[in-house]
Write a structure and sequence with these properties.
β1 and β2 form a beta hairpin. The chain has two domains: about 210 residues, Alpha-Beta Complex (Sulfite Oxidase, Chain A, domain 2); about 110 residues, Sandwich (Immunoglobulin-like). With about 350 residues, the chain is mainly beta. The strands form four sheets. It has a five-stranded mixed sheet. Strands 3, 4, 7, 8 and 9 form a five-stranded antiparallel sheet that branches. The radius of gyration is 21 Å and the shape is elongated. It is built from four helices and 19 strands. The structure holds ligand MTE and molybdenum atom (MO).
Length: about 350
């Protein structure tokens, strides 16, 4: 990253406003995050189009088709006033409604995998409903039960987190069927496993609760690990000598602190170079980056790697970890050949 780009990025984050980091593009300052796009990189858009957004669930491609006029969500258990919530009740809370960008990723994704996406979501903070219901003092967890019989639980503090949102819109449209119509949870800092779709029931309980994936050994905490994906080049690509643009994404959801910078190595990890972050808005969203590499003459093959450094200076962990049980760890390493 050259000094100029660096200053731009830091000015943006210091001011705390959502401005695009767009190189020298003239209309940079006038675009909103959902329009951030760049040619010649992958991902090429900061907001993943809904039709390209990954889908992951236990229904084997047959997600529930819920009728919103019949849909009910019951909030019960350790509450003062159990509630039955209907979709119009949620939509009527216009003053509480919020539109946010949020990146989702799957705990089962291998390093460099593609089960990750970033979307604009509209909904209301879950805490609004939980406060109306009145959480009793003994409560420790919120259990979610869904129309496809998926179930999972989260700590009550997470359920009351101001950024835990019951979403009913995705990228400006009603939540698509496969993404949880009519209502799903967005749980900050946690993998998709803790973002239940097609919610029918939220039960407040006082004991540990292991859900569908947790009883199969997956992490109950499910905090997102910092991961940096090299989208271009892909494995075993043959690259021409000369100038080449490496690009990808980095996401540090679990600490909720966000990415400070991304570094790329083109020599198997011996030396590291700062990438340019061209789109980044919030710690709960991914950062998209690129790096211009001048491929030396005579090189035959090498390994391209990328890693992220968090806002608090923490360097992404290098140690390889399998996705099971708590999410993949380590650096995404892409072996490439160099043509003549
Ligand atoms: N009801 C329900 N919710 C669910 C799941 C599921 O199988 N059923 N899968 C979870 C998992 S493992 C992930 S990664 C995310 C994926 O969300 P998406 O399909 O909208 O990308 O949904 C989560 N919510
Ligand atoms: Mo997942």
């Amino acid at each position: 990253m050259n000094r100029r780009t660096f200053l731009k990025v830091s000015a943006v984050s210091a001011a705390g406003v959502l401005l695009p980091v767009f190189g020298d593009s003239a209309d940079a300052a006038t675009r909103s995050p959902d329009q951030w796009a760049r040619a010649g990189v992958e991902p090429s858009r900061w907001v993943t189009p809904t039709r390209e957004f990954y889908v992951q669930d236990i229904t084997s491609g047959n997600p529930p088709a819920l009728d919103a006029s019949k849909w009910r969500m019951i909030i019960n258990g350790l509450v003062q006033k159990p509630k039955i919530v209907r979709l119009p009740d949620l939509l009527a809370k216009a003053s509480e409604s919020t539109t946010v960008h949020r990146t989702l990723s799957c705990i089962g994704d291998p390093i460099g995998g593609n089960q990750i996406g970033n979307a604009e979501w509209t909904g209301i903070p879950l805490r609004v409903l939980l406060k109306e219901a009145g959480i009793r003092e003994q409560a420790t967890r919120a259990v979610f039960r869904c129309a496809d019989l998926y179930h999972t639980a989260i700590p009550i503090e997470d359920a009351m987190h101001p950024r835990a949102i019951l979403a009913f819109k995705m990228n400006g449209e009603d939540l698509p069927r496969e993404h949880g119509y009519p209502v799903r949870l967005l749980n900050p800092g946690k993998y998709g496993q803790k973002c239940p779709k097609w919610i029918n029931n939220i039960e407040i309980v006082a004991k540990e609760y292991h859900g569908y994936w947790e009883t199969r050994g997956w992490s109950d905490v499910a905090a997102v690990k910092t991961a940096t994906r090299v989208h271009v080049p892909t494995k075993d690509a043959t690259l021409p000598a000369g100038s080449y643009r490496i690009s990808g994404s980095a996401f540090d959801g679990g600490s909720m602190g966000g990415i400070q910078r991304v570094e790329v190595s083109t020599d198997g990890g011996s030396t590291w170079h700062a990438a340019e972050i061209w789109a980044s808005a919030d710690p709960l969203t991914w950062s998209l980056w690129q790096y211009e590499w001048t491929i030396p003459q005579g090189a035959k093959k090498t390994k391209v790697l990328a890693r992220a450094i968090g806002k608090d200076g923490t360097v992404q962990r290098e140690k390889y970890e399998d996705p099971y049980p708590a999410g993949a760890g380590g650096y995404h390493t892409v072996e490439v050949k160099i043509g003549s």
